[in-house]
Each structure stands twice: as structure tokens, then as C-alpha cells.
Design goal:
Blueprint: H1 2-24, H2 30-54, H3 71-87, H4 99-107, H5 109-112, H6 116-126, H7 134-166, H8 178-203, H9 208-239, H10 257-264, H11 274-290, H12 301-307, H13 312-323, H14 327-343, H15 353-359, H16 365-376, H17 380-392
Helix pairs in contact: 1-2, 1-9, 2-3, 2-9, 3-7, 7-8, 8-9, 12-13, 14-16
Pfam family, one: HTH_18
Domain HTH araC/xylS-type: 278-386
Keywords: DNA-binding, Membrane, Transcription, Transcription regulation, Transmembrane, Transmembrane helix
């Protein structure tokens, strides 16, 4: 079982190093310190399992159960991190989410005040028993439910964020939360692994401490995933330190969560009069058909609304009523139609597909391919090949 100890100890060291990197990263905003704290808590909690299974509880008995309450911070810190990513500020009364952690610590004060010998007996009776006690199993199920609630709420915010950026931006690749979603799904995997490990520990013959170290392997995967994504982001920042941000900050978006709820439930309130609707429709048609503003790489709802002299919420309503789609789909559909039109021109043969796509407003090959497949059901190469065949017939 020492291999479990070594793996978890190595993951903990990696986590502490990652915490240091995040702390050194600039600017130090809310995202950085919440992510750093989450990484530190994950890393420190790993040492709890290592402490029990390695036998160091006999050498340092007064560290008994110090790391165990940290599991109750996983969910709150993950939720706060996702909230900051999707709202650009901390949630109100965020510190109240730590109440279960505080209550748990207070409940174990009698244990913390015991002598070293008594703590060693506690560890050997609970953590090193030949199977996971029923009380411990129920406690772990409660923890799983606690974290699961936060994950579900976090996924909800991610989903709303993704809809929000689709309603306001034409290029969402650089401001998406795909890495955050992967992190949430990894947490779900960890919860499943934790539940299986403790259930098997209850029915089979291995200790609570071994179960903790098995769960530690999943926590280690989370830490390495965080390390990978953070390291990649640092390289991006170093390479583009002097460039302007590639996409507008979401703080300029005025859509509130209440409006999002109404939208999700289908209760869209129309504020445009019939006269405004027809007038604004003509302005939008001119901007799209004649001026081809969709070819601007980073056109946003706010920018397009300024160009046609209406409010962003009015433009959002206009697109919804006219086309029944998000701003993101509206812009990219017109980009694809423009690309298809250009591919019918024999002179387009001298240009690459990516070159044409970039000239029509796309910022990357991946976003171009995804959009083209969505609106045509074909890859760009397949479409161009068929167009060549048609032109030769």
C-alpha cells in the first residue's frame, strides 16, 4: 500500500507547487486567489490519507483529523471559483459557505484536545480498522451529497454563461468555460470514485485510511489537470503579454440573471413597437447584406448595436424575433453563407479555405470547421470538392 502513499504525496507536492505558481501569477484577481486556495486545500487534504497510511500518526499524533474537515471546502471553493468566472465578482456572503466546515471542526474539538496516546488509539480504531465503519460510510455519503449540490449549481451557472456569451459575442472560443466544465466533470468522477471506494471498504476488508488514499488518486488527477491548464495559460500570457484582450469583458453585458431565467422559461417580454421593429429590421438588414459587418472578426452584440444606433437589448430581441437564434449563430450563419458564396467564384481557387474563413470573420480553424459543419452538414473540404465537381459538369 506504500505505492498509494507515494503517489498521493507526489500529487500533494505538485499541488503546493501549483499553488505557488498561481500566487505568483499577475494580476492577482479573485479568480487567482480562489483557484489558488482550492488547489491548496486539495493538496493539503491529500496529506491526511498519507499521514494515516504511512504510520506518521504515531510520530505526530496531534495532526490527527486536521486535514479531514477540508473535504467540506471542496464544494464551496469550486462553486465560488465558477461563480467568479461567470459573474466577474465574488458571490454575496460567500464566507457563509464555510459554515459546515466550521461546524465540523468545532464538533471535533474534544478530539483535538486529547492526549497523543488517545489520538493514536482513535486513528487505529477508526482509520486503520480492517473495514470502513458504517458511521464513516454514512459520513462520506453526506460529504458526497454536499459536494454534488455545489457541482450541480456550478454546472448550471456554466450553462447560463455559455448561453450568455452566445447571445452577445460572435467568437466564443477564447472566452468559453470548457476547462471549467472539464474540472466539474472530473469532480463528479472523483465523487463516484469516493462512493465506490467507501462502499467497497464497508463490504470488503480494507481500512478507512486505504479508502481515503484511493480517493486521493482521484484528487491527484484533479491537481494535475489544474496544473496542466494553469501552465498552458501561463504560456499564453507570456506569449501575448503586450496584446490587447481578444474578446470584450463580459462585464459589459447588461443581461441579468432574472432575464436569463425568463428566457429559459420562454417568457420573453417584447419591448419593440411594430414601428421600431420594421425600422430596426431594415437597419440590421443593411448592416448585414450591404455592409457585411459580420466579417469583422470580433464583432459583438454591443458593437453591432452601436453601429446601427439601437440598444443591445433591442438588437437581441430583434434577432430573436426575426431569426429565432442567438447572436452567435446569427453572425456565424451569415459568415458561412458568405464563404459558400465566395467558393462558387472560380477566383477562390487561389485562396485556402482558412484564408477565406479568416477574411469572412472567423478567428480560428476549429471555430470555422465547427460552424461550417453545423450549418451545412459537411466539412469545408467536402463542400469545396462538391462545388468543384458542379463547376466542371
Amino acid at each position: 500500500m506504500q505505492i498509494l502513499v507515494l503517489l498521493n504525496f507526489a500529487a500533494a507536492l505538485q499541488g503546493f507547487f501549483l499553488t505557488y505558481l498561481i500566487a505568483q501569477n499577475k494580476p492577482r484577481d479573485n479568480r487567482s486567489w480562489v483557484l489558488g486556495l482550492l488547489t491548496f486545500v486539495l493538496s493539503l487534504s491529500l496529506l491526511g490519507g498519507v499521514y494515516g497510511l504511512s504510520g506518521y500518526y504515531k510520530v505526530f499524533p496531534h495532526f490527527t483529523n486536521v486535514a479531514d474537515p477540508l473535504f467540506l471546502l471542496y464544494g464551496p471553493l469550486l462553486f465560488v471559483y465558477i461563480y467568479v468566472l461567470t459573474h466577474n465578482h465574488l458571490p454575496k456572503y460567500y464566507f457563509l459557505h464555510a459554515l459546515p466546515f466550521v461546524i465540523y471542526v468545532l464538533a471535533f474539538i474534544p478530539l483535538y484536545l486529547k492526549s497523543g496516546e488517545e489520538k493514536i488509539q482513535f486513528v487505529e480504531a477508526i482509520f486503520l480498522n480492517d473495514h470502513v465503519p458504517l458511521k464513516a460510510l454514512l459520513m462520506q455519503v453526506g460529504r458526497v451529497i454536499h459536494i454534488l449540490i455545489y457541482i450541480v449549481v456550478s454546472l448550471f451557472f456554466v450553462r447560463m454563461y455559455q448561453q450568455k456569451i452566445k447571445d452577445n459575442f460572435s467568437d466564443i472560443e477564447k472566452i468559453s468555460l470548457e476547462q471549467a466544465k472539464r474540472l466539474l466533470y472530473l469532480f463528479l468522477l472523483m465523487l463516484l470514485g469516493a462512493l465506490v471506494a467507501f462502499v467497497l471498504g464497508y463490504f470488503l476488508s480494507y481500512s478507512f485510511s486505504i479508502s481515503n488514499n484511493i480517493i486521493g488518486l482521484f484528487v491527484g488527477v484533479l491537481i494535475y489537470a489544474l496544473a496542466y491548464s494553469t501552465w498552458n495559460k501561463q504560456h499564453v500570457h507570456l506569449g501575448k503579454a503586450n496584446e490587447k484582450p481578444s474578446a470584450p469583458d463580459l462585464s459589459e453585458v447588461k443581461m441579468t440573471l432574472a432575464e436569463e431565467f425568463d428566457k429559459q422559461k420562454g417568457r420573453r417580454v417584447f419591448v419593440l413597437s411594430e414601428e421600431q421593429f420594421h425600422d430596426f429590421s431594415k437597419r440590421l438588414e443593411q448592416a448585414v447584406e450591404q455592409e457585411k459587418l459580420f466579417t469583422e472578426n470580433e464583432i459583438s452584440l454591443a458593437e453591432l448595436s452601436k453601429k446601427i444606433a439601437i440598444q443591445p437589448y433591442q438588437l437581441s430581441e430583434l434577432i430573436s424575433r426575426l431569426y429565432g437564434e442567438s447572436f452567435f449563430d446569427f453572425i456565424n450563419r451569415h459568415r458561412i453563407e458568405e464563404i459558400k458564396s465566395r467558393l462558387k467564384d472560380p477566383e477562390s481557387e487561389t485562396f485556402s479555405l482558412l484564408g477565406i474563413a479568416m477574411d469572412c470573420g472567423f478567428n480560428s480553424k476549429s471555430s470555422f470547421n465547427t460552424a461550417f459543419k453545423k450549418f451545412t452538414g459537411q466539412t469545408p473540404s467536402e463542400y469545396r470538392r462538391k462545388e468543384r465537381l458542379r463547376s466542371t459538369m
